[in-house]
Amino acid sequence: MITAIVFVKADVAHIPEVAQAIAELDGVSEVYSVTGAIDLITLVRVRTHDDIATVVAESLNKVPGVLETETHIAFRAYSRHDLDAAFSLGLD
Fold this sequence. Notes:
By secondary structure, the chain is α+β, with helices and mostly antiparallel strands. Helices cover 32% and strands 33% of the residues. It is globular. The chain starts with a strand and ends with a helix.
């Protein structure tokens, strides 16, 4: 599974609608409304790099109200959840 983190700048008058439309796209697992220089953070989880291009370039970028995106592809995950799962399997 490949994870991409997509920063989205959106039309501020329509952030909830933009977020909902993005959340409904195939390949999008989560959308967060955030403070700061960007408006939304989207997590895309797909099987191939080509699928990232499909989700971001062909779908997400075309959602009305999306003004700009910046995509980051994750190559390794570090999270408490992952560590707890490993230890529960006896992999310590």
